[in-house]
Amino acid sequence: MKRRTLMGAVASIAMLGALPVAAQDGLTVAMSWANYQEERWKIDESGLREALDEMGATLVTADAQSSNSQQAADIEGLIARGVDVLAIVAWDSEAILPSVQKALAEGIPVIAYERQIEHPDVFYVAFNPIEVGRIQARGLVEVQPEGKYVLIKGSPTDQYAHYVLTGQKEIIDPLVAEGKIEIVGEQWTEGWVPDVARKNMENILTAVSDDVDAVLASNDGTAGGVVAALASVGLEGIPVSGQDGDIAALNRIARGSQTVTAWKDARDLGRLAARVAAELADGTAPAEVTDRVLWDQGPKGEAQNAVVLAPVAITRDNLQVVVDAGWISREDLCAGVTEDAPDACK
Amino acid sequence: MTQPHLVNMQGVSKSFGGIHAVKGIDLTLDAGEVVAVLGHNGAGKSTLMKMLAGAYQRDLGDIQVHGQSVALSSPAEAHDLGIETIYQTLALADNLDASANLFLGREIAWRFGPFRVMDQARMRDQTAQVIARLNPHFDALDVPCRSLSGGQRQTIAIARALQFDARILIMDEPTAALGPHETAMVADLTRRLKSQGLGIFLISHDVHDVFDLADRFIVMKGGQEVGSGRISEVTKDEVLGMVIMGRCPAQIRPGPGASMLDEHGAQT
Amino acid sequence: MKLGTEGARILSLLALLAVIAVGFHIASGGLFLTPRNIYNLVVQTSVVAIMATGMTFVIVTRNIDLSVGSSLGLIGMVIALVQIKWLPGDAAWNWPLSILAGLACGALIGAWNGLWVAYARVPSFVVTLGGLLIFRGMAFETAQGRTLAPFQDGYLVFGGGIQGAIGESASWMVGLVGVALYAVTQVVAHLRAARMSRNEPVRRRVLKVLAVLLVMGAFVWIMNAYNLPRSDIGRGIPVPALVLIAIVLMMEWIGRATTFGRHSYAIGGGMEASRLVGINTRKTVFFVYVLMGVLAAVAAVIATARLNAGTSSTGELLELSVIAAAVIGGVSLSGGRGSVAAAVIGALVIQSLDSGMVLVGASSSMRMIAIGLILTIAVFADNQFAREAKE
Predict the structure, then answer these.
(1) Is C160 on the interface with A (CB under 8 A)?
(2) CA distance linking residue A289 with residue A310, whole number of Å
(3) What is the ipTM of this complex?
(4) Tens of pLDDT along B116-135?
């Protein structure tokens, strides 16, 4: 019930954002969402709006509703309206380029939010997807430094899944070379569908006669499928990774059937974007922005200014973090936890 | 007349998207009588009969069966009134066998929860019997209709009409797909059914087919009646003239669809 | 012994299945034809196979349902919502109630599709393509994209996991009762038909019963040979397999023995003819979709119990597997032809390919290629076969 009222409050804030806001004397930041329907952007917006409110700045938003042309029109409208900084969650990172150039030509700084837009003059603000993979692999290696590993990868057509794999490999490959870790099976998961992950895991278990020590699953949904498959052969409890901090996954961590999830608190990213926007609007050179790095991990390999946020590794030992952040209720987190409860459930 | 007509249609009309397929037709049928419904393709005969069969709903007019006005809003309602139809297209489901087609829509079945469970053994048995009466050489009872010959398919369609104790039978071009031998069989059958007291509508575009079988006739053209009367009052040539030219001979009362003749005998 | 065309089709599908199984068994170094893998295969196939039985009816009436994957997702979310969020406490009747809610939701979804297709006369491709989007969107909206977990323990039985099989002795009982019931129906059918003009020879009926005895015995024996982890206790028949078997028997019975089934086939073979003989074609098509919706709900129970979670992405792309299963099973997209049993074997063929490729370590892209090829070749072979049968 508590969650529903929270959602209602967030939704009504979002509605206000959609209304035309009279230009004030202070800073005006525009946000062009790719598809505001997706749940997480509401959380991003709450962080962004909160930080801008504190600065006395104004936020105006537009939602492209999964359409290239709508997003182009949105951006034109926002430029015409006169904004100081333009943040974009690109629906299509290639098709958006003409609109981006238009904004840059008007002298408006552009921030690519979470989804990279490969252009040297665009400032990139995101959770580091490669770090996600590193967190997952580190989480497993810590508890299972050697043995037989299975890789349940994300959707093969999703660039994000490849970033995650890059991070995983960074940690795992040296250990494989040393002969400490052996990869006994790996499969992609079309569409990140949990049931596909479960079937793949079941079949890999058959192929290796259950001789598995740890499973690197790329997100919490696939981890759910993996844990179900492990449970049906009595292997529940071996190390399994994930990402997103799904309620079900956090509950699995509390119950001991998942080891780690790479948690991205979207509100943090929203706050970060507000800070970067303020700095850019003040005339700070992009290369001088606080915590700025050069990011060149995109498909084209072009370097651009960026601030990347590290996701947080959530394990049994720091579950309290997600509870304190209001991300999950203690009741949801600890549902079904009986013996050997983690600290957060005591 | 004290006895009501078996079928009595008054002012029946039907149009499809502004085109009058049938316009103001009056027609009766009595028990033990064969009435030929004649006219070119597109004259409206099949549409008129489909209204009686419940396949089309009339726009205007009244249809009485046994003296009772009836709605005829569905084929099932027509079936309940004892009206059976042998369609020109035969109306068979090509993927089903003889027995399934014979009982299609009227299966022998008992209720079981939300379903009706068919008594297939009995349906097959009855199918074998009724078909054997019509065509003793028919033995392909278990194959889908699509692999049967035209005559065999026709046999199934006829058997279906006979199976359910029809009082009124509509035969739409029943011999169109048949050879001479089978045509003669259908003629025999028609006479036999007539003598059993059925009323029969015989639809045809070919006057020769029906002249010997019918007692009365109606000729249609452009959805309207050209004329109607007893077969004994007219010659084949006169009926042909009605079908082709819409010209009504003097001894027949002309309908609204007849061409008017001026005093020089020329058509207007 | 005369075999109908449908019988011949099923035999050729079983032959294809045998070739695939033996091929993978050799290629995987003896992993495919093990009790464990067969147990997994049966459970993994059940979700697609259950929906394929309904899809058979939909396609037989010359329609299509592209929304089944999304329907499954939405129904799964409704079940999760009812069981985990709405019903208070941890009462024993929570999960049965949530299943009832799921079945009702499935029937509603089917009624929605059915209304538009049968009564509003919108082409089924369009209606169900719309449904694919609508139901997936609603699945997301039910919990704003969150994953709902965990389910009650009683519910997990439907997933066929560690607690989801009925055990050795119960499996033998089920097998025995099944064979006995089949034998009784054969005897009754024989006695009834003996009074009519046509009957099957006794020898053939005895052979049928023996065949069922053999298949059932082998099935139970294999399921019992897969032990629970770290023990000698056999698992027995998994619950999803029991559900699947029950559904297949019911759907075969509906297709063969009921007027509803016969009318569905008649509509596919001749829409106009069916109308002229007085079949209520709209009502029949409507209820075909309702049936499809209810079966999607049954599949949703198994799918969510398998994952022990309701996620809005459950069942994504599943409509493709379901349609492919029916088509590989010889259900004709031009309507009027196909059988439930063959569609289920089609689902087994797809899952065997999928699992077998993982066992030999092939990538997911290779699996897609293999399944696509089989789909095309199966339909080609089936067309040739149908043409020859006609000549």
Answers:
(1) yes
(2) 17
(3) 0.88
(4) 999 988 898 899 999 988 88
